[in-house]
Design goal:
The protein has one domain (about 5-230): Carbamate kinase, CATH 3.40.1160.10. The protein is of the alpha/beta class and about 230 residues long. Helix content is about 40%, strand content about 20%. The structure holds uridine-5'-diphosphate (UDP). Uridine-5'-diphosphate binds near residues 10, 49, 55 and 128. One of its GO terms (biological process) is 'de novo' CTP biosynthetic process. It comes from Eubacterium uniforme. It is an enzyme of class 2 (transferase). Homohexamer.
């Protein structure tokens, strides 16, 4: 693969702590990304915000404001992971759809293409910049905009199952499935609106366990043990 969009769930970054950052998990991600960057793969990254805040976290706060807090949580996440990447020798830029002063650069396809040409990994922070969306939507949108070949979704769970593996020990993992199955059956694997966008724009996806050894490299090189979602 030449250009991919990697989605890191906030929960997976928090490791066993379930909140904030687990440095070892982030370093492990950085080391894998470095291997791929050194092979010439261009990588855009969307990070979730669930390790800090979700729009549904507080019912006392107006949804639009709560979603704003969620988007800012993803900015913190991207700044943190970006710095971990730099300590591992990876060049990075963090882009947001809104101005964050000197913390980030404003997103545009041209700016991203320039950064890729300089060998940088590009973080897409701040979600879509709009409330009532999610980082899954940002993932789909940015993948389409930057013309990524595939979305690699690193999650706390290692693929798509026919039932909840935490509740059913006999749950079976799908090796492959169609994006239209997710849309038609409203499977909660990714946001429905994001799945529709991927289906209409023909962006395939691989969902895998982020905390498994070499899972990002395996996903990018056709050796995943997760679920491949075709379009
Ligand atoms: N968010 C938003 N717009 C976006 C992306 C994210 O409003 O384009 C907010 C929303 O409140 C969301 C939070 O940021 O709950 C964290 O994003 P993430 O997608 O990780 O949340 P989740 O879908 O897991 O709740």
């Amino acid at each position: 693969m030449k250009r991919v969009l990697l989605k890191l769930s906030g929960e997976a970054l928090a490791g066993d702590k379930k909140f904030g950052f687990d440095e070892a998990s982030c370093v492990a991600v950085a080391k894998q990304v470095k291997v791929l960057v050194d092979q010439g793969v261009e990588i855009g990254i969307v990070v979730g915000g669930g390790n800090f805040w979700r729009g549904r976290t507080s019912e006392k706060i107006d949804r639009t404001k709560a979603d704003g807090i969620g988007m800012l949580a993803t900015v913190m996440n991207c700044m943190y992971v970006s710095e971990i990447f730099r300590t591992e020798g990876i060049k990075t830029d963090v882009f947001t759809p809104f101005i964050c002063g000197t913390f980030t650069k404003q997103f545009s396809k041209d700016a991203v293409n320039e950064a890729f040409a300089e060998g940088k990994v590009c973080f897409f922070a701040g979600g879509t910049g709009h409330p009532y969306f999610s980082t899954d939507m940002c993932m789909a949108l940015r993948a389409i905009e930057i013309e990524a070949e595939c979305i690699l979704g690193g999650k706390a769970i290692d693929g798509v199952y026919d039932s909840d593996p935490h509740k059913n020990p006999d749950a079976k993992k799908f090796a492959t499935m169609k994006m239209s199955d997710i849309v038609d059956n409203k499977l909660g694997v990714i946001d429905l609106s994001a799945a529709v966008l991927c289906m209409e724009n023909k962006v395939p996806m691989i969902l895998f366990g982020l905390n498994e050894e070499n899972s990002i490299i395996n996903a990018a090189t056709g050796k995943t043990t997760g679920t491949v979602i075709t379009v």
